């Protein structure tokens, strides 16, 4: 395998860097967890986060056979669903009342599982539809806004809301192929990746403050 030079120069770079940053940060997150529940919830979150960035970096940076590329593409899309559900896991298990948290967690992981099945077996869908599916899974939090408001401090709530807003901007830009920047160096897809990085950092800070 070698670097794929046919894509924008910065394609996958931010996610490659974030894989290593996330791995180190998540090691600290798990190390400072205080109970088995915190360790479990944060481990699931960490696996999802690192898997998303790692698989994305491989898919977008490496030049490989068509068969391998298609496999990585499926895994890349699956990784997004795992990351979304993984990000919900610490919030549901550590911050929300058990009943509300378990309901939300079941809904999100069920939808993520459906999204993973779709990513594996139904690969030819429009990018707008794919972006919409990601948003639907993430927006499952809305019926639980009141519970979140009661359970979380304003600081954590702002971090989670800001992260969700940035993820949404990224998904919309991905669907619209916007903004049109420099396609040889840093295009709309790279902006999408950058927004994912920013949102992931905001959510990591919020989750770290749950322990």
Give the number of domains: 1
Count of helical regions: 8
Radius of gyration: 17 Å
Largest sheet: 2 strands, antiparallel
Describe this structure in words.
By secondary structure, this protein is an all-alpha fold. It has one domain. The chain is built from 8 helices and 2 strands. Helix 1 (13-31) packs antiparallel against helix 2 (36-61) and helix 2 (36-61) packs antiparallel against helix 3 (66-95). The longest helix is centred in the middle third of the chain and has 30 residues, at 66-95. It is globular. The mean pLDDT is 95.
Compact description:
This protein has 211 residues and is mainly α. 77% of the residues lie in helices and 2% in strands. The protein is globular and about 50 Å long.
List the helices and strands and how they pair.
Elements: E1 2-3, H1 13-31, H2 36-61, E2 62-63, H3 66-95, H4 98-121, H5 127-138, H6 145-151, H7 154-176, H8 188-208
Antiparallel strand pairs: 1-2
GO molecular function, one term: pore-forming activity
Pfam families: HlyIII
Organism: marine metagenome
Properties at a glance:
2 strands; cell membrane; transmembrane; pore-forming activity; globular; mainly alpha; 211 residues
């Amino acid at each position: 395998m070698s670097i794929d030079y046919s894509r924008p120069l910065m394609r996958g770079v931010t996610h490659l860097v974030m894989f290593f940053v996330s791995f180190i940060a998540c090691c600290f997150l798990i190390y400072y967890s205080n109970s088995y529940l915190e360790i479990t919830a944060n481990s699931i979150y960490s696996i999802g986060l690192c898997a998303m960035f790692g698989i994305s970096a491989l898919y977008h940076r490496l030049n490989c056979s068509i068969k391998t590329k298609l496999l990585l593409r499926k895994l890349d899309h699956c990784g997004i669903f795992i990351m979304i559900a993984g990000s919900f896991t610490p919030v549901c298990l550590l911050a929300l009342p058990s009943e509300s948290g378990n309901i939300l967690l079941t809904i999100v992981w069920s939808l993520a599982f459906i999204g993973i099945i779709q990513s594996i077996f139904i690969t030819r869908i429009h990018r707008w539809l794919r972006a919409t599916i990601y948003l639907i899974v993430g927006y499952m939090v809305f019926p639980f806004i009141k519970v979140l408001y009661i359970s979380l401090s304003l600081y954590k709530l702002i971090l989670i809301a800001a992260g969700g807003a940035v993820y949404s901007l990224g998904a919309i830009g991905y669907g619209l192929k916007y903004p049109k920047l420099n396609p040889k160096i840093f295009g709309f897809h790279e902006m999408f990746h950058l927004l994912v990085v920013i949102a992931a950092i905001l959510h990591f800070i919020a989750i770290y403050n749950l322990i």
